[in-house]
Amino acid sequence: MRARLRDFRALSWAQKLFLCEAVVLIVTSKVLLTVAGLEDAERCFGTVSQFLPCHRQSGSPEVVRWAVLTAGSHLPGTYDCLDRALTGSTLLEASDLPHCLRFGVDTQSNTFEAHAWIESNGEVLIGDVDNFGRFQILTEHEVRG
């Protein structure tokens, strides 16, 4: 625990802000998706992105990726691809960074598997998996910075 606090204190102010925002958003996404569903969660986060402190700063896709993955891996509980993608999309939108939030299903296996991911600058930023070829894109939300 002390090592994590020491690591947190060593971060820059901007990194601390992004990480704290990612923590709040990823936990909120888990709750909103459970009680309200995807459509309402997206609408809520779209509004929230306009008021985040990082909206006044210019972040980078890599900093957002780091914040989302760090928050999701250091908090208790399980945060899946949808929680991470919704959180990342909100932070990217608040930072005026263009990206595409994609939702797809696995068409090559006998079991149902859905996946959510974010692409930025033509590369997968959040939600990378081994074989994207197995996913058929159902819907995508392109956000222009």
Automatic annotation (TrEMBL):
Record domain Microcin J25-processing protein McjB C-terminal: where: 60-138
> Which superkingdom?
Archaea
> Which InterPro entries does the record cross-reference, listed alphabetically?
McjB-like (IPR053521), McjB_C (IPR032708)
Q: Name one Pfam family in it.
A: Transglut_core3
Checking NCBIfam families in the record gives: lasso_biosyn_B2
| Name of the protein in its database record | Microcin J25-processing protein McjB C-terminal domain-containing protein
